[in-house]
Amino acid sequence: MEVTLNINGVEQSHDVEPRTLLVQFIRESAGLTGTNIGCDTSSCGACTVHLNGESIKSCTVLAAQVDGMEVTTIEGLAQSDGTLHPMQQAFHECHALQCGYCTPGMVMACVSLVEENQTLTEDEVREGLEGNLCRCTGYHNIVKAVLEVSEA
Fold first, then answer.
1. Cα 122 from Cα 51, distance rounded (Å)
2. d(CA 64, CA 54)
3. How far apart are CA 137 and CA 97, in angstroms?
4. Is 48 helix (H, G, I), strand (E, B) or coil?
5. 80 inside domain
6. Which of 77, 63, 74 is nearest to 22 (CA)?
7. Range of the structural domain that residue 140 is part of
8. Residues 69 and 6 in one domain
9. Among 137, 36, 149, CA closest to 93
10. Which long-range contacts (CB under 8 A, 24 or more apart) does 88-93 make?
11. Which of 26, 61, 68, 151 is most buried when burial is the number of CB atoms within 10 A of its CB?
12. How many CA atoms within 13 Å lie on the side-chain side of 50?
């Protein structure tokens, strides 16, 4: 079946199997590999993207279900001139990553979290990111980066 999505401002139409997950569409059909596949069970959040402005785990949605909608991936956050999104910059400055595998999904979830609540506490950040797992940093620097952006 043909699925058409606006991904990072570019319309993408591809013929895919009806059972194709959104994460597979993004990675395999659209060729945007910044969105990672971590667990295939919606437990880790590595595949988090924005669908019509809302943070979702793209391994839980069929591409056909979101036909015609807008998707933003990690590649779509930075500006066209290469200027990083404030959350990407904060992750860099606060050393909020180590291996980097969870980082794209974590950044996307953090952007949504700050958009939903501009004045976050440390506990609210930790609770808001419960659906995104990181095996390396212990979350301290991730929380620090989110608080830095929410305070700005």
1. 26
2. 18
3. 6
4. strand
5. no
6. 63
7. 86-151
8. yes
9. 149
10. 90/145, 90/146, 90/148, 90/149, 91/142, 91/145, 93/145, 93/148
11. 26
12. 23
CATH number for the domain spanning 107: value is 1.10.150.120
Whole-model pTM: value is 0.95
Q: Which residue, 56, 75, 94, sits at the end of a domain?
A: 75
75: amino acid identity, one letter: E
At residue 152, the pLDDT reads: 82
Q: 3 has which bridge partners?
A: 14
Q: What is the spatial distance between Cα 33 and Cα 73, in angstroms, rounded to a whole number?
A: 9
Which two three-digit tokens encode residue 38? 């971590």
Please list the alpha-helical segments (H only) found in 25-139: 86-93, 103-116, 122-128
